[in-house]
Write a structure and sequence with these properties.
The protein has one domain: Nucleoside Triphosphate Pyrophosphohydrolase, CATH 3.90.79.10. Helix content is 17%, strand content 37%. Strand 6 and strand 7 form a beta hairpin. With 131 residues, the chain is an alpha+beta fold.
Length: 131
């Protein structure tokens, strides 16, 4: 089963989200930065690598916040693991996304997120505390 990792990066009460580029699978859908775990790689190491590739930051990978399986129609099931990122060094650069935004957790459900992220987005928006 493919493992996909995603980062919950918070700053000043807002969470970083990215919009997929046109022409990609699930074009223009919103997601949390991250990506696929490569063979032999731990989920935390994969997320650290993905954040360097996508955002040019060296992230401190915190605890797992959510971990569940999801299956898109006509695709193999995936395992999604969301991690908190309590800190990072470097300035965020958009190397991957059509758009990047900092948004309040209560407003996240207003965005057109990937179907696999929707339950997590709803739970996040309903919680008041920082992850």
């Amino acid at each position: 089963m493919q493992i996909v990792v995603a980062a919950l990066i918070e700053r000043d009460g807002q969470i970083l989200i990215g919009q997929r580029k046109p022409g990609k699978w699930h074009a223009l859908k919103w997601e949390f930065p991250g990506g696929k775990v490569e063979p032999g790689e731990s989920p935390a190491a994969a997320l650290r690598r993905e954040l360097i590739e996508e955002l040019a930051i060296n992230a401190e990978i915190g605890a797992s916040i959510a971990d569940y399986e999801y299956q898109y129609p006509d695709r193999s099931p995936i395992r999604l693991i969301f991690f908190g990122v309590p800190g990072f060094t470097g300035e965020i650069q958009n190397r991957e996304y059509h758009d990047l935004r900092w948004e309040k957790r209560t407003r996240l459900p207003e965005y057109d997120f990937l179907d696999g992220d929707l339950d997590f987005v709803r739970a996040l928006a309903a919680s008041n505390s920082a992850a």
